[in-house]
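Problem 12. The chain below contains 482 residues. Write out its predicted structure in token notation.
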Amino acid sequence: MFLFTASDLYGECCALYGVKPNRDVAGQLAGSNFLTIRRIDASRTFLGELGVRALLEFVGSHSGIRQLVLKKNGVDAACVEHLCGVLRESPSLSFVDLSDNPMSTPSVRLLSETARAVPHIREINVENCGVSDDWMNRLERCCNANSELQRLGFYPYGPVRGLRSWETVFVLVLGPESLVQTYCTEILPYVGSFVSRLRLRIAPLTIDKTDTDDVVKNKVWRCSSMHNYALSWCVVLIGEKTQWPDADISALMAVMRQEEPVVPPLRNKFGVLRDPMYRHAKHLFVYTLTSFHEEGPYKGNVSTVPSSVWLPALGITAPNGMNAPSAVAVRSGNCWKVRCLTDLSVSLCSVFSERPRSMALLEEDEGSDKNLWETIEREKLVGSLHPRCKDIVHYVESPAGQSSVPLILYGAADIGKSKILSWAAANYSAVESLRVVPYHVSHENQSLVVLLFHLLRVFLKKAQADVSQCGGAGCGCPRSNL
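Solution.
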């Protein structure tokens, strides 16, 4: 869908500075899912000042870039200043290689100040840059302190979730109806597909003009996530029509009042390490598709708009002390796709990332079907006495049943019905033309999505699946109504 979106955006960034796109850099961005791009290597490509700034403009629009190699590229003071601005805004960029670029002391001082202010910066390589040992040691100490904080102060993954548990993430989308519709149709489905590997579902929530204060508060609460310190996922879209209805303003104010967790020092005054904590991710994203003023380096296009500008434009007077983010200026359709998609996907992956499963856990999950068969063997005799067993036999062996979709999905919540299904599974498992796949729906896990995921795994085994049994509550019945 977005095969060349990243490379096209890089071309637009180069056009802003009047340079041609570098073929090697463009090749790294094209032909792949740009959501998975984590490293850009521009070493020895001799981009020059304007070429480097064009690349930095792209990196500033892609929230997922973690490593940037600018070795021997003619990086000057203007490039370093631009780079520091990108480092302060990027949630992921933690490694930068600036080696073999002549650098002045003020530039290294700016890099050191940036590393001190941005705790996720782990390494800035300035070897062979003509930098004094004193400044190299200062920069190295800042990066080492950040690396220690990230390694010891935070858990490397999010909270542990069940292997079959799915999380629904509600995203509150505020703004003009046309922009909200575009975001919900172009951005959220693609993000949902990408994060489905983390067993996440994405669903939008919008505010109607007629919503009461209680309804607005309930929607804001619905979008909060306990995995992200009860912060509400919210996207704000600002278009040409800047005045907002009261309901939207009320929802935005409720989100901005939420307090983000304060990260305590890694060690107390006695030098004792504190316990690690889970990371929190950015939850409020503000995008503007219009320029508020004509200042800035891009002929009226600015990269960010401070909250002191965009909040009054919406008719909002924020109280003193309320923390509101700057709005990201979206200059083109490619910028819209790359920035919006990477912003949300990076935050979700940061919160819901999981430790790789061991083979023992995977084998335990695969072996759960064997336990179900043992249950079937115990219950099949009791189930055979139930009078409704004849209905199953009549349905499966009838011409109508054999010509329709070869699945029986049934929610056996009443007493005795699970034994009917146990009997049916045991009875038809001996038929060579059929394959019975038992699946148990417990009271703790009644998600239809989990069931569909299980069926997908069954189909991927490239075997003919004709009868599937589901025992428990919470499942519909498309073919039988026992």
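Discussion. Residues 282 and 347 are 6 Å apart (CA to CA). Students who got a different answer should revisit the alignment rule from Section 12.3.
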